[in-house]
Design goal:
- The chain has 332 residues and is α/β, with parallel strands linked by helices.
- It folds into two domains: 3-205, Leucine-rich repeat, LRR (right-handed beta-alpha superhelix), CATH 3.80.10; 238-331.
- Helix content is 37%, strand content 8%.
- It contains six helices and ten strands, in the order βαβββββββαββαααα.
- The strands form two sheets. Strands 2-4-5-6-7-8-9-10 form an eight-stranded mixed sheet.
- The radius of gyration is 28 Å and the shape is elongated.
């Protein structure tokens, strides 16, 4: 059990608690005669809640915060069918359950709980963001369950034992090719490039060997055309497509009828011969510079999300400490 049990009496969500929460988040002139059915957002963080209950009246709720409590079981949420955002982070939950009716859910956080298996989420087909870091997930096979969520773009698994596996990142990306962010980091082009790998056919223990064989065979199968397309996608992301050659110069002069007349001017012949190579050289310098800056941008974005995660974690821990100190002083 959480250490909070030793200092503060556990709570169950009741009318008094939700009424107080609503008043805290509403302007003073709108606090009277509040209809629970009109409430779309409800924050019940840091209230030492042990059991979820008494939320059936909030039938139009779209955002619910239950983080930083001591909740042990996900329950009594079946009436919140319009819920889009649910935060159950920093609790004592051991099993994923009670979410079957939340079919509109897009953002779910179960960060920092005691969950050992990803399950019972089949109906959450709209899920886009899923955070289940700092739990007890030990096997990479748990990731396979998430393949059913076609809209999943952001996933956080950091802090679970399974992250220690050397094949962790490759395994996740191979099974979830549509992911954009993994563990607060933007997935790189090089990592995403393996997303078409038929990962479901093998176990992760042989992922590296099969990945190398598959990648080599893919190069032969797709041929130069596919490789060129893949390269162009990377170049486009860096805004330097078609700059690594004479394409730009050729396209500019292909239908330029005036350019041919320059050859008749005295002393221009040598310049016309040297100009194309100089032009292409400048393009190639821009191309290399663009790729380098693109990699730099990716690294900066990755550092930003890592720093953001560290700051959020530190603020949450500091907030919990301040509240605990306040409650202890109040109890004396």
């Amino acid at each position: 059990m959480s250490q909070l049990y030793n200092s503060i009496e556990p709570n169950i969500i009741d009318d008094e608690m939700v009424q107080k929460a609503i008043e805290e988040q509403c302007p003073e002139d709108k606090r009277e005669d509040i209809n629970f059915k009109d409430v779309t957002e409800l924050q019940l963080s840091f209230r030492n809640i042990l059991q979820i209950d008494n939320l059936w009246q909030f039938e139009n709720l779209t955002k619910l915060q239950l983080d930083n409590n001591i909740i042990e079981k996900i329950e009594a949420l079946e009436s919140l069918v319009h819920l889009v955002w649910l935060d159950l982070s920093f609790n004592n939950i051991e099993v994923i359950e009670g979410l079957d009716t939340l079919v509109k859910l897009q953002d779910l956080s179960l960060y920092n709980n005691r969950i050992s298996k990803i399950e019972h989420m089949d109906t959450l087909q709209e899920l886009q963001i899923f955070s289940i870091g700092k739990n007890n997930l030990t096997t990479l096979e748990d990731v396979i369950y998430l393949r059913r969520f076609k809209n999943l773009r952001t996933l956080n698994l950091t802090g679970n034992p399974l992250c220690d596996d050397e094949q962790y990142t490759l395994f996740v990306v191979a099974h979830l090719p549509k992911l954009v962010y993994l563990d607060f980091k933007l997935l790189s082009d090089a990592t995403v490039r393996i997303s078409a790998f038929p990962a479901c056919e093998i176990g992760h223990q042989h992922l590296r060997e099969h990945l190398l064989c598959w990648y080599a065979s893919s190069i032969l199968a797709f041929g130069a055309g596919s490789l060129q397309k893949s390269g162009l996608q990377k170049h486009a992301a860096a805004f330097v497509e078609y700059l690594n050659g004479s394409f730009l110069f050729d396209s500019m002069y292909a239908e330029d009828t005036e350019a041919a007349r320059l050859a008749y001017l005295p002393g221009v012949g040598d310049l016309l011969q040297a100009y194309p190579s100089c032009f292409v050289s400048v393009c190639e310098n821009l191309f290399n510079y663009g790729l380098k800056e693109h990699e730099k941008r990716e690294a900066e974005v990755s550092d930003f999300y890592e720093s953001l995660h560290e700051a959020l974690t530190a603020n949450q821990q500091e907030g919990r400490k301040i509240i605990l100190d306040f409650e202890n002083q109040k109890k004396r």
